[in-house]
């Protein structure tokens, strides 16, 4: 099941209300990217192997204007 399918299943499930965590993730507009990132870590057990998924999440976060939500700063690029 793809991240998009998982997001759609969570949204379509009328029997379960979204918990606070899911509400926050969906409100960012980056739920699909977050699910892909978590699935990658679950499968590989090493964040270093999930750089593409983390970058996709980071780009979505910026694109959706979520930086103000966390007042986060970008880390310096690795050399």
Automatic annotation (TrEMBL):
Keywords, comma-separated and alphabetical: Disulfide bond
Domain of life (superkingdom): Eukaryota
One Gene Ontology cellular component annotation held by this UniProt entry: mitochondrial intermembrane space
A Pfam family reported for this protein in Swiss-Prot or TrEMBL: CHCH
An annotated GO BP: mitochondrial respiratory chain complex IV assembly
Domain CHCH: 30-63
PANTHER family, per the entry: CYTOCHROME C OXIDASE ASSEMBLY FACTOR 4 HOMOLOG, MITOCHONDRIAL
The protein's name: CHCH domain-containing protein
């Amino acid at each position: 099941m793809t991240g998009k399918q998982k997001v759609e299943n969570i949204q379509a499930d009328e029997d379960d209300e979204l918990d606070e965590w899911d509400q926050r993730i969906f409100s960012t507009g980056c739920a699909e990217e977050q699910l892909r990132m978590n699935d990658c870590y679950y499968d590989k057990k090493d964040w270093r192997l999930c750089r593409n998924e983390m970058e996709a999440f980071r780009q979505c976060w910026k694109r959706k204007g979520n930086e103000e939500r966390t007042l986060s700063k970008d880390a310096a690029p690795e050399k």
